[in-house]
C-alpha cells in the first residue's frame, strides 16, 4: 500500500521479506511552499510586465482618435485643445504604466526575499540570487521604460510649438 502518510518498503533479509513502514512528514515542506509562492509571484510579475507593454500599445492607439475627436468637437479646426487632449492621454497612460512598473518591482523584491529564505536552508550554499532593489514612486514614474511617453510628449509639444508659431494649421493670430 502506497499512501501519502506512509510508504511501505520491502526488505529481503536472510531469504525472507520484511515489511517496514517509513514515516513521511505530513503536509508540504517549506521548500514546496516557497516554490509554490515563487511560481505565483512570478506569474503575477509576468502579468504586470505584460500590462506595461499593453499600456504602451494602447496609448498609441488612443492618442490619434482622441485628437481627432477633440478636433471634431472644436469645429474641425486645429486648436490648443487638441494638444491638451494629447498631453492628457499621455499623462494618464504614463501614470498607469508607472503603477504597473512599481508593483512589478515590489513583486520582484518579494521573490528575492523568498529566494534568500530558500538559500539559507540550502546546505551547499546558494549565492545566485538577483540583486533587486525596491523602487520609489518617483523612480517608478521616471525610469528608462517610460522614455516612450517622454518621446510622445515631446512630439505633441513640438506639434504645439509648430501650431503656436503658425507653422501648423491655423495659428493663434489666425494666420494659416
Task: Name a few traits of the molecule.
mainly alpha; disordered N terminus; 176 residues; two-stranded antiparallel sheet; 9% strand; elongated
Walk me through this protein's architecture:
With 176 residues, the protein is mainly alpha-helical. The chain has four helices and two strands; from the N terminus they run ββαααα. A two-stranded antiparallel sheet has the order 1-2. β1 and β2 form a beta hairpin. α2 runs antiparallel to α4. The protein starts with 5 loop residues before the first strand and ends in a 12-residue tail after the last helix.
What strand order characterises the main sheet? 1-2
Number of strands: 2
Question: Would you tell me the structural class of the helices and strands?
Answer: mainly alpha
Distance N to C terminus: 90 Å
Query: Strand percentage, roughly?
Result: 5-15%
Uncertain residue segments: 1-10
* Gross geometry: elongated
Q: Characterize the biggest β-sheet.
A: 2 strands, antiparallel
SS summary, helix count: 4
- Average per-residue pLDDT, rounded, comes to 80
Radius of gyration: 30 Å
Give the H and E element order: EEHHHH
Approximately how much helix is present in the residues? 55-70%
How would the blueprint of this fold be written?
Blueprint: E1 6-13, E2 16-23, H1 30-73, H2 80-121, H3 137-141, H4 147-164
Antiparallel strand pairs: 1-2
Helix pairs in contact: 1-2, 2-4
Short description:
This protein is mainly alpha-helical.
